[in-house]
Amino acid sequence: MSKKNIQKRLARALLEGGEFAEALYEYELAEHIDEYFQSKKEDGDLYFFAVTEHSGDVAMLAIDENDILHINEMARLSLQAYWPDTYVPNITRLLPEMAEQLDQGFLYSAGIKQVDDKNPGKWTSRLFSLLGKKGR
Q: What is the pTM of this model?
């Protein structure tokens, strides 16, 4: 699968209100939930999300600032609410990195930290893929 096609499918799901696949969530993301909660805690992230794409399907999870797990459409809505003014530009900026990681056979995940208390709209994410499975 080409990075370009993966990026288009991610954009459809994340930016254009496209559908998510529950079966893909169960197959590729659900088994990592404990690891994702642990990572969020250890890294001091306020928010965490993970995305995968396989055979044209997309799945997503998000763990919000209250440690509530959101899946697929609810994860997208949660992240949109978390980044009310910056969701589209942030996701647009992250899409190439997401596609790159997924094309290499890894899951994409990001922990989000607030980096400036005086400017709560300024966020950073630490990207990692080693929790993913090579050769999905």
A: 0.84
